Amino acid sequence: MTQTLTDVPTPPPTTKAATRTDKHSQRHRTNTLRRRNTALGWSFIAPNFIGFAVVTMVPIILLFYMAFTDWNALGTPNWIGVDNFERLARNGTFRAAVAQTFYYAIPHIILTGILALGLAILLNQKLRGVAFFRAAAFFPYITSIVAIAIVWNLLFSPDYGPINQLLGLLGVADPPGWTTSTNWAMPAVIIVGTWREMGYYMILFLAGLQTIPRELYEAAKVDGASAWNRFLHITWPSLRPTTFFVTVILAIDSFKVFDLIQVMTDGGPGTSTYTISYFIFQKTLGQDSTGEFGYASAASLILFFICLAMTVLQFVVNHQTDIVAKPRWWPLPLVAGLICFIIAIIAFCARIDLGLGWVGWTIAFVICFGFMVAMTSVWGKRIVK
Amino acid sequence: MTTLTTPTRSMDSTGPSSTTPSTPPAVAKSTPDPARHGGVPHKTTHPSPARRVGRIAVYIVLIGFAAFLLLPFFWMISSSLKKNLDVFSIPIRWIPEVFQWRNYADIWTQADMGTWMVNTVILSVVVTALQVLTGSFAAYGFARVRFPGRDVLFLAYIATLAVPWQAYMIPQFILMTKIQLTGKWLWPMIVLQAFGAFGVFLMKQFFETIPEELSESARLDGLTEYGIWWRIMLPLSGPALASLALLTFVRTWNDYMGPLIYLRDQANYTLQIGLKTFQADPNASSLDALLFTGSTLSVLPIAIIFLLGQRFFIEGIATSGMKG
């Protein structure tokens, strides 16, 4: 014991040489530490990452390559530039699919958003049976889409279905044919989509509503603000981050609509409920498959950019919201990309040849890609925080 | 010795009590704070007549909504107990004349219900276990180990959450075919579902609310990082793990597109794909009631799970805001 005690007061390093070696060994130590941490970190991440890379990351990267090749089920891929996109622009079914995707998405976004917010506000009160109503609203979202389609298809059945019987009772002389009619199939899908997803977005809105401090409402009440004014001046501004988040997810979800179409109408009657996703599926894995994977990938890339553009649009609309510390120039790539994109979509649907040629398309692509990267970092930072 | 035991004791005594209050931030409050705001007057016991009318209006709206949301389910259950010919009747019959309980016995022989059920249960359980294990394991790496490239990697994870699956399902299918995973039992589906970014994201968010001091003192006690993940982090993450497990289970159970693309052999069919083929089967076209019986059976387990773990569903969604 005494020996150790006497050993304890080690002289502090005073000479220059000693300091240098100390620094050196310290650097050495941090290097080893870093190497060890890297190995450790990767050992944690690897089991998930291997699966994730195979299933998600590599396919996403592959997508950007495949869209510019003539890859089919058999042969080897050849780089064919933007030929796939030009073919898509000439394809009437695909153009109709783009239009129908918007036809589904826009009413669906508006209806679902408004109903979800309304329900959330109603259910954010102290009411008897609130738990029951919340569960009821959320339940459709977790039921299987196949069961939903089976039930709704029979509910919508034109001759014997309960819905048309009800409409008949209400005095509607000529009730719609719903999923059997080209005009009414999409509205039927929109109704079911809204019915199913309302509860999910209601939960997101509820979570947002509950972060608004109660004092704000009390103060407003003291000042004699009406319920509408309280909503307009307290609830709406405070909900902004939630609204932003909800609309982004809702938009992406609406534009990629697929399962619902597949189980309810199978794209029909005719091609009246073809959407972009459905087109991709049919071209490659469905019954009308032509095995043109490259061609379908080009359509996938367009879907991807539409979803991305919707997200960017939300950012631009919401730019006052202080979400992240962002560089001053941040709206530039977003707005530029967005404008390019809108022009491209309009030209595409209207079959106007922009005459861009190789160089133009490449530039447009680079711009789109650039704004995607900018987007990811902005959104990513927010989530990482 | 004393230096070694002190952190342990402090961890044991103050640990749980100090972390329990810290869990709510991730677990967003889904239960309503009573009398937070809205049309409820605070101290008054006698609401004014105008308020009462407003209140009744709110209830009428809510009941209307609930009817709109639940009637299809009611119709599904009621039709599942009807005779096949009675499913469509004019006028609508909401309650069957005679309850055909034998539908629930017949479905197992008229369709491959047994096979579908077993496949779906196996798939959902395996996927959930893998997702929870690998997801929380990776989340620990992202939340607690510092190494170069970590944040970039996490961004890559997050970025993929914003890419719709429909956009990359084709390259994914090709890749899965190339590594010869397709057509082998349920394997393609397991690989497809089990390694999502969603679990990593959800668990990382939660792990970051657990105080670092706990891991620190465990480290002093000689626990390895893997030990900390298993013995400290996982036991403290009950609610988040439950949310992740339930959401994954339900998603896998309900998945339709994945099995449609990857499961071509009838013996491997899951409930969803099986029911859909049953619906399209011309030989079964007269079995309307049985179709509803099958649908009810496919929804029933999910309904039970939902009623038992409703809190976790809502918390999981409110925290992550992602469908995964």
What can you see in these coordinates?
Helix content of chain A is 72%, strand content 0%. Chain A has 385 residues and is mostly helical. Chain A has two domains: 85-321, MetI-like (MetI-like fold, Orthogonal Bundle), CATH 1.10.3720.10; 323-385. Chain B is mostly helical. Helices cover 69% and strands 0% of the residues of chain B. In chain B, helix 8 packs antiparallel against helix 11 (238-254), helix 11 runs antiparallel to helix 14 and helix 13 (271-280) packs antiparallel against helix 14. Chains A and B meet through helix 2, helix 4, helix 5, helix 6 and helix 7 of A and helix 2, helix 4, helix 5, helix 6 and helix 7 of B.
- The residue fraction in helices of chain B comes out at 55-70%
CATH class membership of the largest domain in chain A: Mainly Alpha
- Largest binding interface between chains: A-B, 109 and 114 residues
What is the terminal separation of chain A in angstroms? 51 Å
Short description:
With 385 residues, chain A is mainly alpha-helical. Chain A folds into 2 domains: 85-321, Orthogonal Bundle (MetI-like fold), CATH 1.10.3720; 323-385.
Give the key terms.
heterodimer; A: 385 residues; mainly alpha; MetI-like fold; globular; disordered N terminus; disordered C terminus; B: 324 residues
Task: Give the helices and strands, then pairings.
The complex is a heterodimer of chains A (385) and B (324).
Chain A: H1 2-7, H2 16-66, H3 83-90, H4 92-123, H5 130-142, H6 145-155, H7 162-169, H8 185-209, H9 214-222, H10 227-238, H11 240-255, H12 259-264, H13 276-284, H14 293-317, H15 331-350, H16 357-384
Helix pairs in contact in A: 3-14, 4-8, 4-11, 5-8, 8-11, 11-14, 13-14, 14-15, 15-16
Chain B: H1 2-19, H2 49-80, H3 103-110, H4 113-144, H5 150-161, H6 165-178, H7 187-194, H8 197-207, H9 212-220, H10 225-236, H11 238-254, H12 257-262, H13 271-280, H14 288-320
Helix pairs in contact in B: 1-9, 2-14, 3-14, 4-7, 4-8, 4-11, 4-13, 5-8, 8-11, 9-10, 11-14, 13-14
